Structures are given as structure tokens and as C-alpha cells.
Amino acid sequence: MLMFCCNFVFAQHAPAWGGGADQKDLSFGFTFSYVANYYKILKKPDWRTPFLDPTNGNVPVTSELNNISSANTPGFGVGFITRYRLTEHLEARLTPLLIFGSRSLTYTYSDPKYNVTKTVAPTTVDFPLLLKLKSDRIDDFRAYVIGGLKYSYGIGANKSDGDVALIDRNVKNMTSYESYEFGIGCDIYFEYFKLSPELKFSNSFGNVLYPEAQPFSAPISKLSLHTVMLSLCFE
Q: What is the enclosing helix (H) or strand (E) of 141?
């Protein structure tokens, strides 16, 4: 799709102005994103020790742990763009996003019957405040780098487990957390709009793990969330 757009743009004889988006100090748009998440895991010194059930005479709930890992899990997001021009080559952007996705933790035990993957699946609202540094425009193309800070709020992230058995509990994340974000992209100008394919990376600050006394949270000291986002922005 990007190759088709580039060929279409550079084949035009008349300049394309992108609907005048760059000529205004304030403009708006929308974005669609593919999202991939995974955790960086910091384990406690005694992470392999089986968790003991205090309500059942301190009987081990599982066997000894061999490994805890996190695989990339996909999701998608939709959002709105608010852009403010600071200079010809620098602009500020606020891009609220609604993210639908999941994150996973896989636990491997000495007794394989306990092996399990726990999924954390909050719907997240992201509020990135970013600075976009743009190159000079060449015909109908302009490259840029982008970076800044992001605040995230998980909707329904910490629902109570009620009377769910310890072995069936899920890992929870903090309701809100902050991240830093950076990426690259390019602006492609059409006559009535501007299309911007964009690749961004973000890493959370601090610990996103919600601490609980249960078999799947207790072995972990810290979780950091790493996100890769591929977006198509329309202005």
C-alpha cells in the first residue's frame, strides 16, 4: 500500500498540498494502529519456590518453577490526532488512543501438568504527548522523527477475583502507568489529505505489576511493558 501511494504521489505533475494541514497552526486527524506488546520480567531471588496455599495448610499450589516468559501478543488501536505547529519543522501532537489488545505470561514448571499461559487483557486508553521533528519537504514527501511521553489508563485492569481458586487466578497490571515513546515516519501528501505511515516503540517507567499473594504474581519482582506500534495517520 505504501509503495502504491508513493508511486501515485510522485507521478502527479501538480503539487499536492495535503488538504492544507501543514499550512495551519492547529489541525486534526485520526489514526489506525497495529500494536504488539510483551513484558520484560524481573524475577525474585526465590522465584522457583512453589507458592504455598495459606488457606489449605500451606500445601504447595504448583510444582517448582523452571521459567517465566512473555511472547509478543497482537492488538489494534484507534485514535484522534491534535497537531499544533511550533515552527516550520517542529510540531506538538496529542494523540489519544483506545487500545484493544492482550499481554501474556507463560509459566513452565518441573511438573508439566502445571504449565500455563496467563493473559492480561485490559482495554487501555493512551494519552501520548509527542514532539515531531520534520525534514524539509521534497515534492510530496517528508521524513520525520517523533518522541515524548505517554500516560496509559487500563479500563477494568484490576477486577476482583472473588472466590476464584488460587490456581485459576490471573496476573493483574497497575491501573495507570507512564511510558516514554519514540519512532520514525514519513508524510505523503495527496491533494485533499496527508498520509503518514509511522513506526513507534514505547517502554514503561517503573513497575506495571499489581502485587498480589497468588502463584503467578508472587514470583515476579517487576514487569516492564514494551510496545511496538505501526500506525497509519490521516490528516
A: strand 141-155
For the segment 138-190, what is each residue's pLDDT rounded down to a tens digit?
888 999 999 999 999 988 666 666 678 888 888 999 989 999 999 999 999 98
How many CB atoms neighbour CB 153 within 10 A? Answer: 15
Question: Is there a contact between 107 and 216 (Cβ–Cβ < 8 Å)?
Answer: yes
Listed residue (71, 62, 53) closest to 109, CA to CA: 62
Q: Do 180 and 150 form a contact (C-beta atoms < 8 A)? A: yes
Instruction: Give CA torsion, residues 210, 213, 216, 220, to 10 deg.
Output: 60
65-74, 106-115, 158-167, 220-229: range with lowest mean pLDDT: 158-167
- 3-state SS class at 13: coil
Q: Which grid cell is 104? A: 501474556
pLDDT at 201: 97
DSSP 50: P
Domains and CATH numbers, the chain: 2-234 (2.40.160.20)
Measure the CA–CA gap between 74 and 60, rounded to whole angstroms: 34
Integer Cα distance of 53 and 60 in angstroms: 6
How many Cα atoms occupy the beta-carbon half-sphere of 165 within 13 Å? 5
C-alpha distances in angstroms, 36 versus 101, 156, 204?
8, 20, 14
DSSP category for residue 8: H
